[in-house]
């Protein structure tokens, strides 16, 4: 995009808030921060926070969409609510949508879908592509931030990560990079009609991940590989239902099988630079006190 056209678009965007759903989540709050750092108005929408938005309460949708020209949609897994929301967005005059999706959704062998979310995600992507709006789809893999503020964070802080992941690996992507791609797609013209698969620059095993975090944080952390059966039994002893425990074990399957180890070029294509490494993520998180007990 040339400097003049970017200036015109920024002027248009500065007159209308950019809607960010899931604004308190890992990617959403970073998108909000990066947009505001550019001086752009943001409607930060979530069930709790600045602007109340609830996917399961369509009565909150119109207020979220009023006056909006661009929106980042973080869908509610296991539902088909994006399609009616996009239809309403069209009626409100929204021009551009960026959808948060995920890697592997078009690969039937990627992972088990015991949670029943795949059908909804596929419908969401189809709804966006069929909307007639300018659309971009973000398909990130495993978030590096799962180790600092998500799935694995408590175990890492406790010093022992116990997972049925074997020696598998994943090309963990930094949520800061995810947000940067989303912000670019929301504010620049050249991303319309593109699907960006996002990953880090190389695959990292759990052993390598905790060793990198240990070095960055100065804390001793170890990885203990478990069998799937042993992991499910531990979760049940901790109070989860057998069905929920099995679902958590299924989530780990792509890591265990290495199906998320491949490297995608989405960050490079969208931003013109390589993605941040896991070591860079660990260093910046440790410096911010991310693993203090």
From TrEMBL:
InterPro entries: Ergot_Alk_Oxidoreductase (IPR051604), NAD(P)-bd_dom (IPR016040), NAD(P)-bd_dom_sf (IPR036291). Residues 22-188 form the NAD(P)-binding domain. This is NmrA family protein. It comes from Streptomyces camponoticapitis. The lineage of its organism: Bacteria, Bacillati, Actinomycetota, Actinomycetes, Kitasatosporales.
């Amino acid at each position: 995009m040339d400097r003049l056209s970017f200036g015109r678009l920024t002027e248009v965007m500065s007159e209308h808030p950019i809607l960010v759903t899931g604004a308190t989540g890992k990617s959403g709050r970073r998108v909000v921060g990066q947009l505001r750092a550019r001086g752009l108005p943001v409607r930060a929408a979530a069930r709790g926070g600045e602007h109340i938005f609830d996917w399961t309460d369509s009565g909150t949708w119109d207020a979220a969409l009023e006056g909006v020209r661009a929106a980042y949609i973080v869908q509610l897994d296991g539902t088909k609510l994006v399609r009616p929301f996009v239809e309403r967005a069209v009626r409100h005059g929204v021009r551009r949508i960026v959808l948060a999706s995920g890697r592997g959704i078009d690969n039937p062998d990627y992972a088990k879908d015991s949670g029943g979310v795949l059908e909804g995600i596929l419908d969401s992507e189809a709804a966006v592509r069929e909307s007639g709006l300018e659309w971009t789809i973000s398909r990130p893999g495993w978030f590096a931030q799962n180790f600092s503020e998500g799935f694995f964070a408590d175990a890492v802080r406790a010093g022992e990560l116990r997972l049925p992941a074997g020696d598998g690996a994943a090309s963990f992507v930094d949520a800061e990079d995810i947000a940067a791609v989303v912000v670019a797609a929301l504010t620049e013209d050249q991303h319309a009609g593109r699907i960006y698969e996002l990953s880090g620059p190389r695959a990292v095993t759990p052993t390598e991940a905790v060793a990198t975090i240990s070095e960055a944080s100065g804390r001793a952390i170890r990885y203990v590989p478990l069998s799937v059966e042993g992991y499910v039994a531990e979760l049940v002893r901790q109070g989860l239902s057998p069905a929920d425990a099995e679902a958590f074990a299924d989530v780990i399957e792509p890591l265990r099988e290495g199906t998320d180890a491949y490297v995608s070029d989405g960050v490079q294509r969208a931003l013109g630079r390589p993605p941040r490494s896991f070591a860079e993520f660990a260093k910046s998180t440790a410096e911010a006190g991310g693993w203090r007990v």
